[in-house]
Structure to design on (686 residues):
């Protein structure tokens, strides 16, 4: 089906010639060659099932250059509206490249830049690309051109959360960048990570981050990601996590887009359950307006039984925005006693938005509990009247109802201080929107 | 002094005439009760007064303190002092009862030119009111009406009424489905609020409630009209004889 891939795209030889580099180690060069071959096969268009609702047709027409080759980008500070996560180590990436001058000191932490790690550590060969397969187009693109990122190797329990702030900014040309974050844990170790992805106004950019997470036995990784989009940027992010016995992987992803947003965000999360007694929660919320497109794609693969996974997704859509939820649950033939749940609910604040919701349950074991729920609707007129009958004006009533609607998803954020930060960002979105309908 | 004046009110629901000329005056300080068979338009009347969408007033007037209620939006009417205790209170997931009550109270205070009440003061006020009503105060931490039992929902309505101190309170079957303790909570709540400048319109199917909150006037509604009015003894007659004589007419 070569026709369903878009072979005319900006990520060819000319792009490669200008791309930033990682130290030239043999294993990496070889991995990159495979990735480049995948990319030469094309970017996914509307006929590729996994990309049916988010085809990259428009993106393929934009003349992106590697961010490293743009010499007119100048970011000298972290914008003030980036939230402060109490007690966290701040790590700042600008266009995917670590910025020591804007970051807290990494001394004494199990944290290195990808550049350092690749040149100084032999382990990287087995870590990079271990769980994120090149068959995923955005992983292939990232692998072909990644030039920096972070490697977090957690021993024991990291008490300070890590806050990654990723800033995208283009100069006079559209830019693309491809950071890679690799998180590994030793048995019993635990880590909390918060990510704030923002863009500065200007030409469009493509953020193409890939995050690989290895959760060892009895280890726990909790990751809270927020992506805010006001312009026409692309944020195509892929996370692949592998979870061993009794491991915990909790992820919460938030996507926000204002009424001027016209970009595309896709947050794709794959979790492979490789042991019994694991706890997996992949949840999220999105609030979008304008002509923004937001896609949550999840694949939870229960290869081994006796584990639970849970997904709660909620979306609020205004303007002529478009939401996508694709949730695939795979339960392998002998993965008995699996308990998997997924919910996606969307709320429309106008007549313009649309949602595509595609649950896919592939269950090959018989002793399994799987539940899926989906609903799409407008604000409830009985609820609005009830509020009005208590003297609450329509604007405030709508804001309360929307906040209430999202609360069910926000409640999935297990960390209280992060929950407060995310809820505040969400509330700010609602306020900016002004409750207008 | 006439507090609420309803004059020859006609209203359609879904193109069908349900209210067929209701006239009723409630003076400040008075307690009125409306009784009548199912489906005669009692809830329709209360919804029209409260300003719910989907009810088309074809003729007539509703005045509160001589102001035209029908020209106001539902939230304006509420801030002007109309309170409707719902026959079926609505569940609102994700919104805490306390946040809802505080928002409603402050909307009312702003409209009256009063300063907003802060979180601490509000908590103190609610604690005092719940205590006076004998309602457990943890109710305000719960999501609004979500998972409340039938009785808890009605008690919560009375708590809201007590906090918002309306000029005219309409209670639509607030007594239905209540056990005797809950009924007393509702009755106490109403009696505590009774005052010379406040009016009540109580819709009920049962004399039982009227033993506790003794009405000044009782009306029988049938077929979208008020077909009989009398004193508190009318409720007793209705309880004994039913509505047959009014429906035949
Ligand atoms: N939204 C609506 N759409 C269609 N018909 C309606 C609607 N609301 C009320 N009606 C009709 O109007 C009539 C009066 O209903 P209403 O609820 O006012 O009666 P009621 O006197 O309160 O009855 P009950 O004692 O059972 O509470 C009924 O025939 C009802 O079916
Ligand atoms: Mg009724």
């Amino acid at each position: 089906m070569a026709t369903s891939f878009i072979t005319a795209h900006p990520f060819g030889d000319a792009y490669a010639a200008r791309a930033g580099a990682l130290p030239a180690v043999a294993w990496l060069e070889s991995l990159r060659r495979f990735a480049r071959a995948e990319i030469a096969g094309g970017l996914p268009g509307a006929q590729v099932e996994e990309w049916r609702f988010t085809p990259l047709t428009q993106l393929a027409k934009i003349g992106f250059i590697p961010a490293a080759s743009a010499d007119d980008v100048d970011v000298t500070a972290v914008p003030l509206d980036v939230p402060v996560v109490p007690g966290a180590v701040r790590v700042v990436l600008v266009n995917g490249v670590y910025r020591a001058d804007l970051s807290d000191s990494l001394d004494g932490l199990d944290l290195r830049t990808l550049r350092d790690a690749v040149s100084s550590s032999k382990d990287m060969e087995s870590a990079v690309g271990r769980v994120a397969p090149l068959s995923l187009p955005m992983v292939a693109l990232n692998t072909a051109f990644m030039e920096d990122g972070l490697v977090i190797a957690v021993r024991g329990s990291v008490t300070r959360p890590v806050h990654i702030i990723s800033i995208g900014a283009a100069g006079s040309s559209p830019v693309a960048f491809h950071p890679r974050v690799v998180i590994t844990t030793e048995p019993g170790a635990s880590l909390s990570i918060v990510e704030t992805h923002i863009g500065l106004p200007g030409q469009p950019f493509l953020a193409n981050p890939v995050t690989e997470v290895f959760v060892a036995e009895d280890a726990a990784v909790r990751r809270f990601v927020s992506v805010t989009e006001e312009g026409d940027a692309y944020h195509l992010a892929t996370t692949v996590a592998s979870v061993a016995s009794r491991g915990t992987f909790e992820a919460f992803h938030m996507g926000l887009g204002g009424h001027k947003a016209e970009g595309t965000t896709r947050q794709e999360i794959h979790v492979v359950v490789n042991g019994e007694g694991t706890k997996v929660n992949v949840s999220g919320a999105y609030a979008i307006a304008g002509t923004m497109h937001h896609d949550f794609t999840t694949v939870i693969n229960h290869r081994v039984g006796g584990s639970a996974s849970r997904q709660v997704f909620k979306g609020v859509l205004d303007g002529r925005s478009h939401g996508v939820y694709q949730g695939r649950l795979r339960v392998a033939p002998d993965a008995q006693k699996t308990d998997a749940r997924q919910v996606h609910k969307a709320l429309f604040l106008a007549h313009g938005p649309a949602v595509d919701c595609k649950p896919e349950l592939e269950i090959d074991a018989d002793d399994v509990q799987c539940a899926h729920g989906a609903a799409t609707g407008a604000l409830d007129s009985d609820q609005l009247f009830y509020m009005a009958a208590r003297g609450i004006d329509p604007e405030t009533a709508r804001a309360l109802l929307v906040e209430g609607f999202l609360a069910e998803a926000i409640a999935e954020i297990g960390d209280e201080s992060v929950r407060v930060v995310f809820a505040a960002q969400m509330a700010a979105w609602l306020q900016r929107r002004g409750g207008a309908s | 002094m006439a507090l609420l004046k309803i004059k020859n009110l006609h209203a359609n629901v879904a193109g069908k005439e349900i209210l067929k000329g209701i006239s009723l005056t409630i003076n400040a300080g008075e307690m009125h009760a409306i009784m009548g068979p199912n489906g005669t338009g009692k809830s329709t009347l209360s919804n029209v007064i409260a300003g719910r969408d989907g009810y088309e007033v074809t003729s007539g007037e509703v005045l509160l303190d001589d102001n035209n209620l029908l020209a106001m939006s539902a939230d304006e009417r509420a801030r002007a002092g109309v309170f409707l205790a719902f026959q079926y209170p609505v569940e609102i997931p994700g919104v805490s009862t306390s946040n809802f009550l505080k928002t409603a109270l402050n909307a009312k205070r702003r409209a009256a030119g009063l300063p907003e009440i802060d979180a601490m003061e509000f908590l103190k006020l609610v604690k005092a009111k719940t205590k006076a009503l004998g309602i457990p105060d943890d109710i305000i931490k719960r999501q609004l009406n979500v998972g409340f039992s039938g009785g808890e929902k009605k008690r919560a309505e009375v708590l809201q009424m007590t906090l918002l101190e309306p000029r005219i309170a309409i209670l639509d079957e607030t007594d239905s489905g209540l056990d005797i303790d809950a009924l007393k909570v509702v009755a106490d709540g109403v009696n505590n609020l009774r005052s010379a400048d406040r009016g009540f319109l109580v819709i009920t199917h049962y004399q039982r409630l009227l033993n506790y909150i003794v009405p000044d006037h009782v009306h029988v509604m049938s077929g979208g009209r008020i077909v009989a009015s009398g004193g508190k003894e009318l409720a007793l007659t209705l309880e004994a004889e039913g509505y047959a004589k009014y429906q035949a007419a």
